[in-house]
Specification:
This protein has helices at 6-22, 26-33, 37-46, 66-74, 88-101, 139-148, 167-189, 192-204, 209-217, and strands spanning 55-60, 78-85, 107-111, 124-130, 150-161, 221-228, 233-239. The protein has 9 helices and 7 strands. It has a 7-stranded mixed β-sheet with strand order 3-2-1-4-5-7-6, with helices on both faces. The longest helix is centred in the C-terminal third of the chain and has 23 residues, at 167-189.
Length: 249
């Protein structure tokens, strides 16, 4: 059992409360700040789902359920889905969206910590997390939990911000993240801390080969990475060893 220090408990709670404060504007801000690229990035996840006729999905740090809803809409293979998050306000927004989508029979949302998932070993065919792994205090533990709850032959898909490799693009991107994004975010959400936090975590979080190495340490095989939109985001994929069992037709 992992022991969490008092300092880490305070830090984790601060992050969760931050997302509570911006929940009502979270989707709008994502669209504006990514110029709607986040929509295309989420759709790309659906192309990398395991090749099984029936999938049970776990979406971690589900927020307002954008990823889970996108995957269900773009893949008829997902027959059951669960989204977990530690921000109750984000889950409230997500539950409204699920109800309005008519997909409440497929997707349910509940409170859940990425580093201590309540679900048993070998439960899901696919686990996902989008723009959430860098908010996990111990990313390696989060990855190990994603791995643990996967069935043998299952797959984890991770979408996260990264930094462009091209020097000029990288400089422009960092200027945007340090100087423009926090101001737009604060203006719309009323929370300057949240978007200053965002740029700091993006700049310091491992990406590319470094993040692939973390996935390998967590136990994943066939780890791959696809840079998106000049490298400002990256899609990662890793498989749990074993053979997935298809559902008879």
């Amino acid at each position: 059992m992992t022991t969490i220090s008092v300092t880490e408990q305070i830090s984790r709670k601060k992050v969760w409360l931050m997302f509570d404060r911006i929940a009502h504007r979270y989707d709008l801000l994502n669209r504006l700040l990514s110029l709607r690229q986040d929509v295309a990035w989420r759709k790309k996840l659906a192309r990398h789902l395991p090749d099984l006729s029936s999938l049970y999905l776990l979406d971690i740090a589900t927020g307002t359920a954008d990823v889970a809803l996108t995957l269900i809409r773009h893949s008829d293979k997902i027959t059951r889905a669960l989204g977990v998050d530690m921000s109750e306000k984000m889950l409230e927004e997500g539950r409204r969206k699920v109800e309005n989508s008519g997909l409440s029979s497929v997707l349910s949302l509940e409170t859940g910590d990425a580093t201590a998932l309540k679900q048993p070993d070998n439960t899901f065919d696919v686990t996902t997390i989008a723009f959430g792994i860098r908010n996990v205090m111990d990313p390696l533990t989060g990855l190990k939990e994603m791995y643990r709850v996967l069935k043998p032959g299952g797959r984890s898909l991770i979408l996260e911000f990264s930094l462009p490799g091209q020097p000029v693009l990288r400089a422009l991107y960092l200027f945007y993240f340090r100087n423009i994004l926090p101001r737009i975010g604060a203006l719309i959400s009323g929370d300057s801390y949240a978007y200053n936090y965002l740029n700091k975590t993006v700049e310091t979080f491992p990406y590319g080969d470094a993040f692939c190495a973390l996935m390998t340490r967590a136990g994943f095989e066939n780890v791959r990475a696809w840079p998106l939109t000049f490298g400002i985001a990256t899609l990662y994929s890793g498989d749990k060893p074993g053979k997935g069992k298809d559902v008879p037709s």
